[in-house]
Amino acid sequence: LEFFEPNMTSFVQPCDAGIIRCFKAIYHRSFCARALDLDDAGEVNIYKIDLLEAMTMAKGAWFMVTRETIKNCWNHTCIQPDSSAIQSLLPYPAHADPLAWTIVRDFVTSDMTLPEVESALQLHLGDRFVDADWQLALKVVMDAEGDVDQALEAVDKL
């Protein structure tokens, strides 16, 4: 049996970092609203609830916990890598991505437009896309003015 150090629970059990608290608060709010409605209706035992109704309210409370709340609670734990750490896990930097260069070569050999190739690069690279990294490659293709061999040679040099 291992005991956690004091104040470590939220770091090793991220749901304790606020997700459960948020869920409970939403459930408690709906339970209290239900009790007030029963009181207004003249019921005597306003806190009595059957299992099905409690489960239905719990399900509703869970669906009201937003993605943003969950994300913030996970970020609070500091156990997720930051974006720079994620990028360091990638096998190569964005400008060395072979598929990205395949997209540029497709631009040379097909009837893709400049906006289409930029969109394809953004879609493929996501957060790693930096417009300035690709401007030279796209410029050499445009400067070749339809000469496929010249454009491919220039792209290969990059």
TrEMBL record:
Species this chain originates from: Pisolithus microcarpus 441
The protein's name: DDE-1 domain-containing protein
Upper lineage: Eukaryota, Fungi, Dikarya, Basidiomycota, Agaricomycotina
DDE-1 domain span: 6-74
Alphabetical list of Pfam families matching this protein: DDE_1
Domain of life: Eukaryota
N-terminal signal peptide: none
GO terms for MF: nucleic acid binding
